[in-house]
Write a structure and sequence with these properties.
Length: about 210
């Protein structure tokens, strides 16, 4: 992952010096978050955690119909359980807020008055805040009220650093308006201990709109 990020960084620097057609954009929308590697019991109750994202990016052409897009993004992620059984009736929501730096390779395909685009690339993120919210009668789940997630110290609840791969697709109109969808595949074990049996990563599906200047 580190070598991949360095390679993309080198492409960005070279492209910035060679191209004068760099454009900039802003996009925002809805995130649907989950955690991977859930137990069979947890999977029965797992739902999408609805949050949001806001991303600013540069579009740097490096070849005809091909660009590199570095950016900075505020990403809401997390997980949700809706529980209804003999012992419990309620919900447990984990909300994470992360600052991410994605570097995507994007290919444009002319279509109609605009371009279809597809892309992928790595990202690194840092969790700046987090909270677990429990509502209802949660019985044996052991969650009550709101609890802040600790990302530091020996007794941390979750690792602060995340890294993974983004996939994106959408349509850009001739005036710069964007319609886009994406998927963030977290590759980092977010459990506080690498030796833990409860290893999990982030999974985030997104839908949004934006504008490229």
């Amino acid at each position: 992952m580190k070598k991949l990020l360095l390679s993309f960084g080198a492409v960005v620097i070279l492209a910035a010096g060679a191209q004068a057609q760099t454009s900039y954009g802003l996009k925002a929308g809805v995130n649907l978050g989950k955690f991977s590697n859930q137990t069979d019991v947890a999977k029965d109750y797992q739902k999408n955690n609805v949050s949001f994202y806001v991303t600013g990016f540069a579009d740097i052409p490096v070849a005809p119909q091909f660009s590199v897009q570095p950016g900075i993004s505020l990403q809401g992620k997390g997980n949700k359980y809706e529980i209804n059984n003999d012992n419990s009736d309620g919900s447990i929501t984990t909300n994470l807020m992360s600052i991410e730096i994605p570097v995507n390779a994007v290919y444009y395909i002319p279509a109609g008055s605009g371009n279809v685009f597809i892309g992928a690339g790595p990202y690194v993120g840092y969790n700046v805040s987090g909270k677990v919210k429990g509502k209802g009668n949660l019985g044996d789940w052991g969650v009550e009220g709101d609890t802040d997630i600790d990302f530091s110290g020996d007794d941390k609840d979750m690792k602060p650093l995340d890294a993974g791969v983004n996939f994106l697709a959408g349509y850009k109109l001739g005036n710069g308006f964007l319609i886009n969808a994406g998927y963030g595949l977290g590759l980092t074990n977010m459990s506080p201990s690498d030796n833990s049996d409860n290893k999990f990563s982030t999974r985030t599906l997104s839908f949004g709109v934006g504008f490229q200047f």
